[in-house]
Amino acid sequence: MDRTDGLLEISSKLQQFAQERHWEQFHTPKNLASALVVEAAELLEPFQWLITGDKAELGDSQYEAVRHEMADVLAYLIMLADRLEIDLIEAAREKIALNAIKYPVEMVRGKSEKYSSYRDSVIASEKTETKAGD
């Protein structure tokens, strides 16, 4: 089974789970986004006070907690995408392509700054190149 099929399977199981409990009424986009943020915050808890949070640094119970919180984050993200009719795979592909434009390799390799920290130098460089070509 490829990951796309797995995503569809999880989506179907989540929909069935909610339908059986009549919880769809509570799964508004706002509520799902709120739940997603809460679960993402809970994902951070096992890493608190660790130096790097690498797998080797996590104890068995912390590792299991991370796995479960990641599953919760994924579940809420899938439910939100379903509710808003967003193809997560396509959205991720699109975002990767946009980030490739926003973060050109030759400008950001080995750097962690946000694109806005070098955007002004790109614009200035383009203006200089345009003037030189006039």
Overview of the molecule:
The structure is a single chain. This protein is an all-alpha fold and 134 residues long. The protein contains six helices and no strands. It starts with a helix and ends with a helix. The relative contact order is 0.09. The mean pLDDT is 90.
Short summary of the structure?
This protein is an all-alpha fold and 134 residues long. The protein is 72% helix and 0% strand.
Please state the CA-atom Rg, rounded to the nearest Å: 21 Å
Give the uncertain stretches in residue-range form: none
Report strand %. Answer: under 5%
Structural class: mainly alpha
How many angstroms separate the termini? Answer: 56 Å
Mean of all residue-level pLDDT scores:
90
* Helix-strand string: HHHHHH
Number of strands: 0
Q: Major β-sheet, in short? A: none
The percent range for helix content is over 70%
Number of helices: 6
Overall morphology: extended
Quickly list its features:
single chain, 134 residues, mainly alpha, 0% strand
Q: What's the layout of helices and strands?
A:
Layout: H1 3-21, H2 29-44, H3 60-84, H4 88-102, H5 105-108, H6 116-133
